[in-house]
Amino acid sequence: MYYYRRLPQFEYVAPGSLKEAASFLQAHPRETRVMAGGTILLHRMKERIGVKKYVMSLKAVPGLDAIDKAPGQVKIGSMVTIQTIADAPVVRRQCGLLAAACQMLGTPQIRSMGTIGGNVACNLATAEIVPVLIALDAQATLAGAKGSRTVSVEELYREVRDGEFVTEILVPVKAGQAWGYEKWAMRKRFDYATVSAAVAIAGTGRVCKDAKIALGGVTLPTRRARRAEEILKGRSLTNRLIVEAAEAAAEDARTGADIHFTAEYKKELIKVMVSRALKQAVSPGKEG
Ligand SMILES: Cc1cc2nc3c(=O)[nH]c(=O)nc-3n(C[C@H](O)[C@H](O)[C@H](O)COP(=O)(O)OP(=O)(O)OC[C@H]3O[C@@H](n4cnc5c(N)ncnc54)[C@H](O)[C@@H]3O)c2cc1C
User: Fold this and answer.
1) How far apart are CA 266 and CA 195, in angstroms?
2) Whole domain around residue 154: which residue ranges?
3) CB of 92 closer than 8 Å to CB of 55
């Protein structure tokens, strides 16, 4: 691969309000890249991938860097950094799965610059916060020239239109939800996950009323392991059932080989990650 070190020419714009940002993007939807922390965007521009005439930073737009507790949910502005989320008492208390996954993402530098908005909007199978938000049933607010609308994070990849950008992530708070998160990467946290598994379980004791399992690093768009979820519903989460569900998740995953791993190896990783995440969810002291 030919690697350029210098950024190409572009025009930098930094609107001072949501309205201004939406109007600019509406006027130049195909010529603009939105920039949050820039940890992916600038890197790719140096590689001459996806270069456009304008880079529109969201840094000067007020209100996008706040975390607020609202009835039944936690609202996280798209410009909130991954480290801020990992450290926020309200997130640790109310959405433990999200806090744990944020703490396991990348290096301290990446966590301090990278944002939740950049993670959910980057359209990469490796974006690790996406499966977590899908397991938590989170929604994303999109702003556009005609106002704003809310879509589920699971559908964001298909839903987002030219001229729209992410302003907020809404994470429902569910009492008694148990969770588990596992990530496998070549150099532990430093690297993107080869495979990650995010699990959220509703139920009493070991009996599962509802289960959400989403896999990172496997497909774009990120998918849930739906057959594995069905296997768990209404049943007691014994070790045997956990293995059965983990095997179903691995069998159903549409994963291929990459430069490091065969598809078979990745399927084995999926089985292990899902099984460990489920065991975390049923073990005491992990209730979110
Ligand atoms: C060394 C290194 C290690 C990394 N490790 C990990 C890892 O372990 N796990 C992981 O998940 N990621 C990892 N990343 C990727 C990245 O740092 C994170 O995903 C981060 O959260 C991206 O956020 P950002 O604010 O920097 O996004 P940016 O680079 O600013 O944007 C990313 C993309 O999203 C678009 N975008 C940004 N914000 C919005 C918005 N609000 N609305 C619409 N579009 C938007 C941009 O146009 C761009 O296409 C790593 C990156 C590096 C360089």
Assistant:
1) 7
2) 67-172
3) no
- Of the candidates 272, 52, 44, 63, the one whose C-alpha atom is nearest the C-alpha of residue 148 is 63
Give CA–CA dist 124/78, Å, rounded.
17
The b-or-e profile of 220-230 (16+ CB within 10 A means b, else e) is: eebbbbeebbe
CA of 153 to the centre of ligand 1 (A): 16
Structural domain count, the chain: 3
Q: Decide: 222 in ligand 1 pocket, CB within 6 A.
A: no
- Cα(190)–Cα(194) distance, integer angstroms: 12
In this prediction the pTM is 0.95
| CA 205–ligand 1 middle distance (angstroms) | 37
- Does residue 4 form part of some domain? no
Which is the closest atom of ligand 1 to the Cα of 191?
8
One digit per residue, the tens of pLDDT, for the chain of length 288 reads: 556 679 999 999 999 999 999 999 999 999 999 999 999 999 999 999 999 999 999 999 999 999 999 999 999 999 999 999 999 999 999 999 999 999 999 999 999 999 999 999 999 998 999 999 999 999 999 999 889 999 999 999 988 999 999 999 999 999 889 999 999 988 776 788 899 999 999 987 678 999 999 999 998 999 999 999 999 999 999 999 999 999 999 999 998 888 888 999 999 999 999 999 999 999 855 444
> CATH number of the domain that 36 lies in?
3.30.43
CATH number at residue 115: 3.30.465.10
Residue with tokens 């039944």: 72
Cα distance between residue 5 and residue 56, in whole Å: 21
Ligand 1 neighbourhood includes 82 CB (under 6 angstroms): yes
Q: 């946290």: which residue's tokens?
A: 189
Q: Which of 153, 172, 191 is the last residue of a domain?
A: 172
Q: Are the C-beta atoms of 75 and 172 separated by less than 8 Å?
A: no
